[in-house]
Input
Amino acid sequence: MVSTGTYQSVLKADLLVRPLVPDDVATVMDIERQGYSHPWTESVFLDCFKDNYRLWAASHGETLVGYAVVAYMVDEAHLLNICVHPGARGKGVGRHILRHVVSTAAHEGMIQLLLEVRASNAMARALYENEGFREIGKRPGYYPAANGREEALVMVLEFGQ
Output
């Protein structure tokens, strides 16, 4: 665990986005549990270390402050999970990771990036819209919630070919 003071100094420097490795999963699980009411399990993360997935870590030195998991399916990329440590939020980390995901997917020949976002997550929705994503549908009852299920908005960013 890194103190909030350490996050302040880390985030003043440039972030490095690098491939996530299995040794990162313990730190990822810590961030995941702090970031989500219904976090992924360790086994779900470990199952994503396959050829058709891209797993990214945002870090500065040894301090991992965020991550993203993307699945590649034929010519589409699907952002499955993106999370930033609570102590590092609001400092551009999520945007930095998202831009890396987008640029890598486009460079690797994907035609679009899809994602689902909780309808109630206004901050994430604003980020995606600001980065050019548009809503293309809804998935009722997609996410588990404290009082049942919550709707997801399906969003897409199409890459110019």
Remarks:
- The radius of gyration is 15 Å.
